User: Which sequence fits this backbone?
């Protein structure tokens, strides 16, 4: 699991611009990534972004883990 509470402090990786509506966008300011694992092999990554710094807490990470284990 990778959690980035403030993407503005990470210069090595470009983070996406999030589309909020047809006309409105905002930068991704926090992120969490959970690996998708099948037979002990990583086959993908479940990523979630937010427009607020420090948006994700441990319950968010646990929920994403639950989704990842169902994939």
Assistant:
């Amino acid at each position: 699991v990778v959690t980035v509470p403030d993407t503005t402090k990470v210069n090595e990786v470009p983070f996406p611009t999030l589309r909020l509506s047809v006309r409105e966008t905002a930068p991704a300011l926090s992120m969490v990534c959970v690996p998708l694992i099948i037979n002990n092999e990583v086959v993908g990554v479940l990523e979630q972004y937010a427009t607020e710094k420090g948006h994700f807490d441990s319950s968010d990470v646990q929920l994403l883990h639950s989704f990842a284990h169902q994939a």
Remarks:
- Helices lie at 58-70.
- The first helix runs from residue 58 to 70.
- Residues 36 and 44 are 5 Å apart (CA to CA).
